[in-house]
Amino acid sequence: MKITFVKKILASGDPCPKCADVEQRLQATGQMERIDETIVADERNPESPGMVLARELEVNRAPFFVVEQDGETKVYTVYFKFAKEVLGKKTSVAEQGKEILNDNPDLDFI
């Protein structure tokens, strides 16, 4: 299995806040050791490796993870789903819901 972590640099040159948060979570939990490659999608350079990969995979949000295994490629744009399905980390429904709401500001609690 090969796991690629794609994080973004904003047009301002600042790191994407959500990407930094996810990277901190990966490091704090020791999961970063399971990541084989980290690629940067730099908004200032449409030809940066991460921007090219995002276009190829039709991904429009960051961070995201690309998992390649047995000739298949799966993309995860939700950290908690990735952590649960790929890394085996237990996550709560509340954590998953919070991330989905943060990623989709047009949604609201019911």
Protein described:
The chain is α+β, with helices and mostly antiparallel strands. It is built from 4 helices and 4 strands, in the order E-H-E-H-E-E-H-H. A 4-stranded mixed β-sheet has the order 2-1-3-4, with helices on both faces. A hairpin with a 2-residue loop joins strand 3 (64-69) and strand 4. The protein starts with a strand and ends in a 7-residue tail after the last helix.
Secondary structure layout plus pairing:
Elements: E1 2-9, H1 17-28, E2 37-42, H2 49-57, E3 64-69, E4 72-76, H3 79-85, H4 93-103
Parallel strand pairs: 1-2
Antiparallel strand pairs: 1-3, 3-4
Any low-confidence stretches, pLDDT <50, length ≥5? none
Output the number of helix runs. Answer: 4
Spatial strand arrangement across the major sheet: 2-1-3-4
Per the principal axes of the C-alpha atoms, what is the gross shape?
Answer: globular
Could you say how many structural domains there are in total?
A: 1
Largest sheet entry: 4 strands, mixed
Question: What kind of assembly state do the chains in view correspond to?
Answer: single chain
Q: What letter string, H or E per element, gives the SSE order?
A: EHEHEEHH
Number of separate strands: 4
